[in-house]
Amino acid sequence: MTRRAVILGGTGQLGAASARTLLEHGWQVDLAHRGERGVPAELAEARSVSLDRSDADAVERLCRGADLVLDCLAFAPADAAVHGRLVGEVGSVVVISTASVYRGENGTWLDIADSDETFPVLPVPIDESHPTVDAVDDPGYSPQKAALERALLAVEGLPVTILRPGAIHGPHSPALREWFFVKRALDGRERVPLAHLGQSRFGTSASVNVAELVRLAGEHPGRRVLNAVDDPAPTALEIGQAVFAHLGHAGEFVLLEGPPVDGVGGHPWAVSRPVVLSMAAARRELGYEPVGTHRATIGAAIDWMLEAVGDADWRERFPALSNRYGAASWFDYDAEDQALAR
Hints:
Blueprint: E1 4-8, H1 13-24, E2 28-33, E3 47-50, H2 56-63, E4 68-71, H3 81-84, E5 92-96, H4 141-153, E6 160-165, E7 167-169, H5 179-186, E8 191-194, E9 204-206, H6 207-219, E10 224-228, H7 236-247, E11 252-255, H8 280-286, H9 294-309, H10 314-317, H11 319-323, H12 333-341
Parallel strand pairs: 1-2, 1-4, 2-3, 4-5, 5-6, 6-10, 7-9, 8-11
Helix pairs in contact: 1-6, 7-9
């Protein structure tokens, strides 16, 4: 009998990647979305369903009887309520959380880190037993995701797998951080300065690897929390090398000691302490093996973004890069050249 999956947020980055993986493995897939994004052409086999995630009755009707429900949209503890109505009605529930729920040993977390002093001190690697943010009244992203996790795990009898991805990359991404290197290659930059000797590590997550975890959790229901990152975690230098290799660009990386100075040497992964997650639990509990490393999977993301940008202004095509991730300050080539000349 064909398994059926319902994906809430089915046209988003992780929803689309998971749909592709499930379809390839013979699943029937319902893509639930609000219609703000078109359904990717490669998902033509899936059934498109117009749905508002906040309509609990509609969600329950659609999901009842499904073998897998993937929720890419849940954000706050209130969003766990609809899954309580699905106990005994679905085979497995998978909810996307975030690696940023981990609380540093110094009491801070990524949302509030604005200096080296406030950046969370975390073990290397972090496993799923590490404490999470417990600032229940904080409306921020990480505290709300952590509260969502607790609410889901409090639902008795719910077969829920909670996944904690890091910096996600892949086709259909609104925030391809690798654009930092892609644009430099396109602009013919021959020297690229990297702070912290290029050794900064902030766990990346290929959407195809997260999708594989979704599939395995659908086939092996349980109550668990699992990290969902690329393994091994690449350094910033390795990310840059992978991008340049894919684009055939022979730029040189200039490795600078210490943090960025007046922005020079900064990049999207320039963290003062490593954020590296363990994938041992996923291997142990699901028999998980990654589809590929960061280097093996990043090419698809780069090709998709180049096609998506085309001849348009990248800032207009991907406003989240500037508005959320500060990409407008990534390309001060004059400052870089002056610093390198010195």
